[in-house]
Amino acid sequence: MLSLDEAQTRAEDLVKAARKAGADAADALYACNASTTVAVRMGALEDVESSEGEEIGLRLFVGQRSATISASDMNPATLATLVDRCVAMAREAPEDPWAGLAPEDRLLRKRPPSLDLIDTQEPEPATLRERALEAEDAARAVPGVTNSEGGGASTGRSQVALVTSHGFAGAYGATSHSTWASVLAGEGAGMQRDHASHSVRHLADLDAAHAIGGRAGQRAVARLNPIRIESGVMPIIFDPRIGSSLIGHLMSGIVGPAIARRSSFLLDALGEALFDAGVSIVDDPLRPRGLRSRPFDGEGLPTARRAIIDHGVLTGWLLDSASARQLGLEPTGHASRGAGGSPGAGVSNVHMEPGTATAGELMADVKRGLYVTELIGMGVNTVTGDYSRGASGFLIENGVVVQAVSEITIAGHLRDMFRALTPANDLHFRYAVNVPTLRVDGMTVAGA
Questions:
Q1: Which of 8, 15, 48, 192 has the lowest CB atom count within 10 Å?
Q2: Each residue of 117-165: pLDDT tens digit?
Q3: Residues with Cβ < 8 Å from 421, sequence gap 6 or more?
């Protein structure tokens, strides 16, 4: 793995070579990921995996024609061939009036903010093995757990460097630490599976392995002896583990490329109250130690905290430079990309602000409803907004969770679901997208 300075220098050299070869403009992105993972099962070591991969991508422009190419070989001779090939490709590409680098006057010019993404601790494989065993042992120790799919622990490091021909150069690194366990409870055809995991930037923030394993075991046992229920319209309570998927569907509908292509169920929603006034959703790329924190976006623009939904109202689109030009707007610092392609648009750390009611209070008046802990399948159409997914969880009767439920489908329309959504006050920051417990009234449940 190159150092950050070396990675930035390599990207700078590639951009200079592109300009020298005839490109009018260019940018280069270097990305590297290295990780070590130890997996165990039934108390025995199952796998130790160490991987490291690096890639550098070049995007260049000849007039309004562009091409992108990438390589995993950092040899200077290989990169020289890369440049020549990319210029030849661009000259044969169709013209694109929207393509180009980000506006020069909007580039990040000051020193990037420090987001505390790098941990100095790097556990040895033996330490990872101990943590994986502790997590699985704790899960298997829960009464009712009968088998295991394993436990694991990992540590990793990533680095990114971006250079453009019109004045931006920056790089940042990040570390990661994870622990997980997945077990089964019950016997025969009645067995149920569940899991638990935790990922952080700094080892000091990681949950204890026995706590993660204990959660996995308890969740699996709680799912035993599920029943089928009759179909009907009822309130759905989404567990925070899976409620974040609703935010993902919202983001898919407001990214610039989808709006520019007119392929979103939210085409005419800008400035509209999509949610109740008590709902705000924030994108915060500058959160210290955040799992998706970044000091600049995929085009070298500064990032900033932003309320995407402000007291229920959609405040704007998420725009990279190309979609912004197509829509006659300005990029928003949400460009996202890999080494092998042109930028798209996406979010970083996202959370929904907590409400005022406890999770118990959210379900207190539910005569018959569902507490959903798992969603299955991909039956969501972000062009029309139609929503239908397989689910499992627990039946709620008279405000109390009473019985595990499986083999059901929940359905609705995303706009209706957003309007009917109420958040609880139990927000915790554990994932890249975080929500409290969510209640959505009026969903259709298909059961027995």
A1: 48
A2: 999 999 999 999 999 999 999 999 999 999 999 999 999 999 999 999 9
A3: 246, 275, 276, 279, 438, 439, 440
